[in-house]
Amino acid sequence: MGKKVKKEVEPPPKDVFDPLLIESKTAATVVLMLSSPEEEVLAKACDAIYKFASKGDENKVTLLGLGAVERLYKLISHEDPIVRRNAIMVFGIMASNHDVKKLLRELDVTNALLSHLVPEEDVVIHEFATLCLAQMAVEYTTKVQIFEQGGLEPLIRLLDSPDPDVKKNSVECIYLLVQDFQSRAAVCELNVIPPLLELLKSEYPVIQLLALKTLEVISRDRGTRIILGENQGLDCLLKILETNEFNDLHVEALAVLGNCLEDVHAMQLIQQTGGLKKLLSFVGDSTVPDIQKNAAKAIAKAAYDSENRKILNKEEVENCLINLLEIDNDGVKVAASQAISAMCEDLSSKRAFGLQGIPQLVELLSSNNEEVKEAAVIALANLTTASPSNSSAVAEAEGIEPLVKTLNAQRDGAVANAAAVLTNMATQEPLRLSVQSHGAMSALTEPLRSTSSPVQSRAALAVAALGCDADARAELRNAGGLGPLVDLLHSKNEEVRRNACWAVMVCASDELTAVELCRLGALDILEEINLSTGRKNKFSEAALEKLLDNNLSQKYSQMGYLSSSNVITDGFYDYGQIKPGIKLLSLEELSMQELTDRRAIIFINAKPQEEFVADKMGGAIERDKLHDFSWELHISEIEYELKSNVVPIGKVKKGTFYHRALLFKVIADRIGIGCSLVRGEYNRAWNEVKLVDDSPQGVTGLLLPPQEYIVDLMFEPGFLMKQGSAEADQYKRI
Length: 734
Description:
The protein is mostly helical. Among the domains are: about 440-550, Leucine-rich Repeat Variant (Alpha Horseshoe); about 550-734, no CATH class. It is about 60% helix and about 5% strand. It has a 5-stranded antiparallel beta sheet, sandwiched between helices. Helix 28 (about 400-405) packs antiparallel against helix 29 and helix 33 (about 455-465) runs parallel beside helix 36. The longest helix has 15 residues, at about 40-55. The chain is elongated and about 155 Å long. The termini are far apart.
C-alpha cells in the first residue's frame, strides 16, 4: 500500500466569528439573549428560561420585571419550530402567575396561541399552548377573546388528541369557557358531546372529572340534554354510578344526570330501562353525603315538571327523600327538603309526605343551621297549602311553637314561610286558637317591620288569618303591631298592599282596634288608595268601610251618614262635619281643649231613654217660632258650666234637629229599631226608618216591600214623612 499523505486543514474564513461558549449565571443575561438573531441561541435561551420559571413563582416575577414576556411574545410565532416550541413552553409555565396573565391579555396572546392549535403543529406546542389558554381562561375578558377569535373549534378538535396532557388542558379550557352562555350555546353546534363522552373512558381521573364538570354546565340547556340522550349519554352516566372504582366521579355524574332528568323524555327513558330504580337504590345505599345531596338535587330539578312528578311518585321517591332527612349532614337535609317542596306539588306525594315526613321537617325547625331551617319551613309551607290534614299533622308533631319562633329567624325565606304555614293552619278554628295561644300575633310584629316584600306580604296575610277574635287583635295592638301594619299600606308592592288592606279590614272588627288604626293614619291612607284606580283593590275598599263601621264618630263626621246597621254605643261623639284630610281628634284630646266658639261636640254616654226624644229636648216647636228656640244659648251655658267643648247628650234640654236626630238614633239602636242618621246642612239632621205597611184588606199573607220614612222630631214629633215627599224635603232642607 502506498504511503498516506496527511491532508492539510484549511483555516476558517476571516469574516466568520469563532464559536463562543457562554456560561451565564444571571437571568438578565439570558433575557437579553432572547433578542439574538441566531436561532440556536434563542432556542437555548428559551430552554434556560423555561427551567428557571419552573422553579417557582418568584422566578416568574423576576422574568416579568426583566421584560422577558414581551421578548418571548415575539418568538411564539418564530419560523424555527424549536424556538417557537420553547417560547410557548415558557408561556405555558409562566401563565399561572396573575401579573403575567394580565400582561398576556394586554398583548392579546390568545390569537397567536390559537393559531398554533392546527393539526400539523408539534404536540408539545399543543400541550403548552392549551395550558396557557386554560390558565388565562379563568378571567372573563380572556374567555370573550378566545370565543370571539374562534377558539372553541380547535379546542374541541384537540379533545381527540393522542396526548393526555393536551386532552386535559383542552377540556379544562372548554369547561371554563362554557361558564359563559355564548360559549355554552356554541359548543353544542360544534358537536362537543361525543368527544366529551369519549373522555369519560379515559384512564386519567382528572380528565374524566373535567369532562363531567363540562357536561354538567352545558346540560343545563335543554338542547344539549337532547343531544346527550341521542348519544347514549344517560347510559354512560348510569354505568359510572354502577362502577365502584369510579366512586370519586359519582357526585359529578349525579349532577349531570340531575340536569337530564328535568326533561320528561329523559326521565321516561331512564325509567323504562330500569335506570331510575337503580338510581334511587344507589342513593339509598350510599353513605357519601355529597352523593346523597346531589341525588336529592337531581330529584328536585326533575320534580319541577308535572309528568316527572308522576313518574317519581310511581317509583316511591318519597321514601328515599324522607330517609335523607335523617342523614346527619346539613347539606343533605337542605337538598332533601327542597326536593320535598318540589314533589309535593303532586297530590299523591303531598299525602305521602303528610303521613311520614312532617315530624322530621318539624324537627329541622330547631336546627342551628339557618339554611336547614329555611328549607324545612318552605317544605312545610308547600305541604300545608290547601291541605287541612297536613296542617293538622304539623300541629300533632308539635310544630306550632317552633314555627312561631321561626318568625324571628335570620333568613327572610324562613320567616315568610313560617308565616305561610301558620296562615294555612289558621283556616281550622281549633288550630287557629292553638296558634294564637303561642303568641303568634306578638311574634308577627317584627316580620311586619321587615324590609323584604315577601316577608311583609306573608306576615300581613297571617295577621288577617289570625285576627279573627278580639283577644288576638288586642295582643297585636298591645305588641305595637298596628303601626307597622298601617305602614305597609304605603307599599308600592301590590301584593303587600293588598294583604295589608286585608289585615286592616280584619283588625278593624272591634272599636278599640279601629280607633287605634285611625289614630295611626290608616283611614287617610285608605282614602288615598281608593282614590287611585291603579292602587285600589276590593280589600282597600272593604277595609275603609270596616274601619268606619267600627269608628262611627269618624264615619259620621266624615260621611255625614250612619246606616241602620251602624249601632251607636256609649263613647260616640258628634264632632260635626270635617273636611277631607282633617284628622278627627279623640274624645280625650277634644275634652282637653280650651273652650271655643265653634259648635259643641255632642257625646253619648246615657242609659236608654224612656220618654220620647222631642220631650227630652224641649218638645214640639212651631215652624214659624223656630228662630225663637234659643238652643245655642242653652248649649253654650252647658259648655261654660263644664268648661269643655264636649257636651254629654243627657245634659241637653233644648236640642235642635241634629241633637234630636242623634238621640233618636241612639234610642232606636238600643231598642232594636232599624234607623239611619243623616247629616244635612245648617245644623239639620234627620232619621230614616224602613217600615212595612199593613196588607191590603182581603189579602192575607201578602208582604209588601218596606217603605222609607223621615221621622219628624221637631214640629210634629213622631210624624212619619214618606222619603221623597214635599214635606220630607221641607223638613230636611228648609
